[in-house]
Amino acid sequence: MAVNTTITTGDASFDKNLNGSYGATATTTTSSPPERLADCDHPDGSVTTPSESEAVALGMHRLETASVRWYSYLLTVDFWVVIAIGQVLSLCITATNTFSTFLAMANTSIPAFQTLFNYLLLALIYLPITIHHLGFKGWLRVVWRRGWKYLILSFLDVEGNYFTVLAYRYTNILSAQLLNFWSIVCVVIISFFLLKVRYKLFQIAGIIICCGGMGLLLASDHITGSNGGPAENMLKGDLFGLLGATLYGVSNVFEEWFVSKRPVYEVLSFLGIFGVIINGVQAAIFDRQQFRDATWDGAVAGYLVGYTLALVIFYSLAPLILRMGSAAFFDISLLTANFWGVIIGVHVFGYVIHFLYPIAFVLIICGLVTYFLAGSVLGDSKKPWLGDNQQHGVAGLGTAKLKALNEARRQGLATGAGAGAGTDERV
User: Fold this and answer.
1) Among the listed residues 96, 164, 89, 82, the one whose alpha carbon sits nearest the alpha carbon of residue 344
2) CA 20 to 30 Å from 355, out of 24, 53, 328, 347?
3) In this structure, are residues 327 and 138 in contact, taking their beta carbons and an 8 Å threshold?
C-alpha cells in the first residue's frame, strides 16, 4: 500500500540539498493512502502521486510567502489575461445582443430556438474530446456518477438565458438592466455561504465601483431616453428579469465550482448535451408559433450563425475566467458589455453617444482593477473549497494548483512525478 508523504509548509525552508533531498527544517509526516480523485484532480480519476502532492505544497508555499505589495498582482501576466478575457466575453455578449436585434428587425423572434445551436455546437466540439480523454467507459461512469449535477447546471443555464430574454419582451431595457445587478448580489451571497469565499475590502470596493459605473450608464440612457420607454407588462417583465438574474447567478457559481474540480472539456460537453435536450423541448413548446411566423432567408441564417459562434466563444472562454478569477469577477466584467453595445449602436444603428458613457466605462475598469488590489499573486484562482493546497481541484489551465506545480519546477523543488504532472496542463 502506497504511503502519501507530505512536507509541512509552515515556515520551513525548502532548499534542496545536493543529494536531492529537502532541508532538515522540513519535516515529513505520513498519512493515509492517496485517495482516488473521482470528483477532482486528474480527469481520468487516476491517483495523485505523493511527489505531485508534495510539489503542489512546495509551490503553493513559495507563492503565498513571497514578498508582495498591494499592486503585485497587477504586475502579473495573469491579471492582464483575466482582464482581457473579461472584455472579450463582454464583446461576445454585445455580438449576441446585436445579432438578436438584427433577428428581431427581420421579424424573427425565436429566443429558445436560436440558442439551441449553441448547445449543439458545444456538444459536437467537446463531447469527442471528452470521450478521447476518458474513454467511452470512463465517460459512462461520469454520466452515472455526476450526470445529475451537470443536468442541474444545464437547466439553470438554459432557464437563465430564457427568462432574461423573456423579460425584455415585457419590460423596458432600463428596468431589465437594473435587474441584472441582482445576479452579482446572488453570486456574492452564494459564494460566501456555500463556497466559504471571504471577500476582502478591496474586492467589495471594486464591486461597488463597477456597479457605480453601470449606474452612470443607466442614468445616461434614461437622460437620453434611449433605454426607457413604454413596456407591455412592467411587473411581469420585472419578475421574469429577477428570476433570470437569479438563475444566472446560481449557474455561474455552480460552473465555477465545476470547472475548478473537473476538466473544462468535460463540463462543456455535458452542458452542451443536456442544454440541447432542455432547450430543444422548451423551443418545441414555446417557440412553435414564432417559428412559423419568422422570416427565413440568407440574412437570417447569417445572423443565426453569427449569434451561435459568438455564444460558443463565450461559453468556451468563461471557464478560464472562472478559474483565474471568480464568478463575482466574471459578472462584474460583463458590465462593460453595455459600453461596447453603445459603440456598436453608434456605428451600426446610428445611436448618439452621451458624455457619461466614457466616464462610466473608465469607472468600471477601475473597479475591476480595484477588485484585485492587496491580493496575493494567486488572485482569485485559489479556491477555498479545494483545500489549502488545492488538493481537491484539477491541475488545469488557469488554476492555482497548476501555478503551484510550475512554481515548484521553476525553483527546482519538484522532481519525479511531481515535476512532470504540471507539464500536461489539463484543461
Assistant:
1) 96
2) 328
3) no
Write the single-letter amino acid at 207: I
Q: How far apart are CA 160 and CA 144, in angstroms?
A: 26
CA distance 269 to 314: 14
Largest CA distance in the chain: 77
Contact 399, 260 (CB under 8 A): yes
Distance CA 82, CA 79 (A): 5
- Cβ-contact 2, 34 below 8 angstroms: yes
Helices (runs of H) and strands (runs of E) counted in the chain:
15, 2
What grid cell was written down for 346?
453608434
pLDDT average, residue stretch 171-186: 72
Q: How far does the chain reach from its first CA to its final CA, in angstroms?
A: 30
In sequence order, what DSSP letters do the residues of 333-388 get, joined into one string?
HGGGHHHHHHHHIIIII-----THHHHHHHHHHHHHHHHTTT--TTTT-S-GGG-T
Pull the grid cell for residue 122.
458545444
Q: Which three cell numbers stand for residue 10?
A: 509552515
pLDDT greater at residue 272 or residue 355? 272
Amino acid identity, position 104: A
Residue recorded with cell 479556491: 383
Amino acid 337: pLDDT: 81
